[in-house]
Amino acid sequence: xxxxxxxxxxxxxxxxxxxxxxxxxxxxxxxxxxxxxxxxxxxxxxxxxxxxxxxxxxxxxxxxxxxxxxxxxxxxxxxxxxxxxxxxxxxxxxxxxxxxxxxxxxxxxxxxxxxxxxxxxxxxxxxxxxxxxxxxxxxxxxxxxxxxxxxxxxxxxxxxxxxxxxxxxxxxxxxxxx
Length: 178
Hints:
By secondary structure, the protein is α/β, with parallel strands linked by helices. Helix content is about 40%, strand content about 15%. The chain is built from seven helices and seven strands, in the order ββαβαββαααβααβ.
């Protein structure tokens, strides 16, 4: 089975803002970026298409797969940053619990949000469901954190290693053969 994990295109949010599960708008460059994504997967027949329900993924999925059925699944959402959504990373870091979380993000939950172990659990559930009915090619339009977790699961690599070495770009397509 070939999994094509597609990261959403750029968002209309300043670069130092934590936006996790906030349903932010896409950048004005969306049309150009979505065409580039479509070109990267041109000629590939997809048996199934999944997407995070957030606007930044949903609109890309609908744009590059206009005639296909798209399954929206909340398991594909980015990390829920709780009280820290739409705050700057610096503001989060200078809150005592924010610094503790940043030093131990792979263990602890965000304030009134989600932990990476919880996110990993939901991604593993999704992945297990996928492998029960394998298809040849599956497209998944999602977020950088989700793509990192897929890589961690498939390649059996620690998530904390991937945050420093693997950074999926906006509009990137990462293929896994499983």
